[in-house]
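Reading a protein record of the kind used here takes little practice once its layout is understood. The reader may check this reading against the record printed directly beneath this paragraph.
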Amino acid sequence: MVIGRIAGSFGLRGELKARALTDDLQRFEPPSRISLVLPDGRAHEGAIERSRPHKGHVLVKLTGIDTIDDAEHWRGSEVRADRVEARPLPNGTYYVHDLIGMRVVTADGRAIGCADDVLSSPGHDLLKVGEALIPMVRPIVTRVDMQAREIVVDAPAGLLPDTDQAG
């Protein structure tokens, strides 16, 4: 499961600057094992030697990545952790990677598209579906059906593209 993305390197000794895609920052603490996966499929697995928060990111030192050049090679990669180590979530909360790819429909059944990403913002997360950014709040996201892989939204007027009426 995807728990972060590598934004770049930090320092000269192979530290990676990761954007966390999880609220559980313990996933980035030693001795956890993670994998870095580039878009072309190349991967590196290693144990976390050390980590620390830094200006909205997590700095991670991973075994086998010891120089700035090593770290720069992994810029843009996904940070993945083994699904079996995932902690149970409270009701009404979801792992981002579980939502990505789910079908998004309006309350009356009109297809909007598939969830491309979940973006963090100070007030609430935003579900990205094509060009639309849908606030992940209860009045708008009325149901998340993990079995059917469907997210139902009741969008106010003007929120969704190509519509000027509430869904």
Q: What stands out?
A: The two ends are 32 Å apart (CA to CA). The helical segments are 68-73, 96-99. The mean pLDDT is 89.
